[in-house]
Amino acid sequence: MPLTEKSGHLAWCALIALALARKDGTVRSAAQENLFLTRWLASAQKQRRFSRDVAPDIDWLLKQGRQYGVKAQLAGKLDYLWQSCSGTLTEQNALGRLTFVMEAAKDMGWIYRLLTDREWSGRYAINLNSSVNGIYVSQISLAEAFDPEGRQVKPLMARLTGSVAGLEQLFDRCGWKLVAERNEDFKNLFTLTTENNR
């Protein structure tokens, strides 16, 4: 079984367990949801219910749940993992998949910000900290990149800082590619293009 299927299976099991707990009335609030999923993941880890291949996924989810509590939004992260591994995410249009990527990145602590033309370039352009995980998208580029049906019609320009390699995996799972651009005027400039333009 490929790693994506194993990760998807883990997420599916956790989401089913959560749905059953909600149905039984055991989970009624966001705080109870976080506590339930954190305990469920800890039990799965302790009992070795899943392949060693998904141990990093379990470790990361546990760390998120314990460190951020309700703000970790574990159910959302598990839903993302399920959708990205099962293929249902790739059936959405390009704009929908991009929105999903940006929300998932924000859940993982990335800064996401739309920049006006003035903030993007020129005298008043914002200075980006290369050590901060950030996604900065040009408002003009975003407005021109998609048609009314959510299909990409032009490349999307973004400036990415921080751990771009990890972000690249997230984009790749959702059918997007990051291409680094050589540009003396803009550091950390990337072109974002979709593989599956529905």
If you had to describe this structure to a student in words, what would you say it looks like?
The protein has 2 domains: about 5-85, no CATH class; about 95-195, no CATH class. Helix content is about 50%, strand content about 15%. It is built from 8 helices and 5 strands, in the order αααααβαβαβαββ. The protein has helices at about 5-25, 30-45, 55-70, 75-85, 95-105, 115-120, 140-145, 165-175, and strands at about 110-115, 135-140, 155-160, 175-180, 190-195. Strands 1-2-3-5-4 form a 5-stranded mixed β-sheet. Helix 1 crosses helix 2. The model has no long low-confidence stretch (mean pLDDT about 85). This is DUF2913 family protein.
What portion of residues belong to β-strands? 5-15%
Q: Name the helix and strand elements from N-terminus to C-terminus, one letter apiece.
A: HHHHHEHEHEHEE
Distance between the termini: 28 Å
Largest sheet: 5 strands, mixed
Look at the helices and sheets and give the structural class. alpha+beta
What is the gyration radius calculated from CA atoms?
A: 19 Å
- The total of beta strands comes to 5
